[in-house]
């Protein structure tokens, strides 16, 4: 395998490893920190830019490998149909090897390009999922805080109502006391009047007063 196909294979292996990390059941906090680092790190941005250029060259290799595979396949079909070299084992082996290498290179570069698209889409999907989970956590926290506030407000309202009822009871008791006091004063005045009248009629003098 030539050096550029070896590098393509190494890149494909790295993509497979990265994909396994993306889909691994990691805890939410670790996943969030990982994707925040991947999306905000300047170093990762430079690496991603270099990979985009690499994928352009891999796409060129894919087109070249695809054309070579079609050409080798056509040559094998022509050789079989024309009967040229079919009986020669070495020629047949050579055609089979060329066809195998062409197919291998095509599949290698094709899967590398396909997996790059899958990785990109998976990255953005998981990033959106993390953002949605963060928004949900904030909304849940705000809802819980507002619920506690409503609960406290409800308790305060109950206390206010109880205080209002107690105040009304006290005011009623105060009014009853004032009424009773007036009645007592009136009765005392009436008693004094009757006592004076009795003293006048009987000729007796009395210093007794009802306070």
Automatic annotation (TrEMBL):
It comes from the Eukaryota. It comes from Auriscalpium vulgare. This is Endoplasmic reticulum protein.
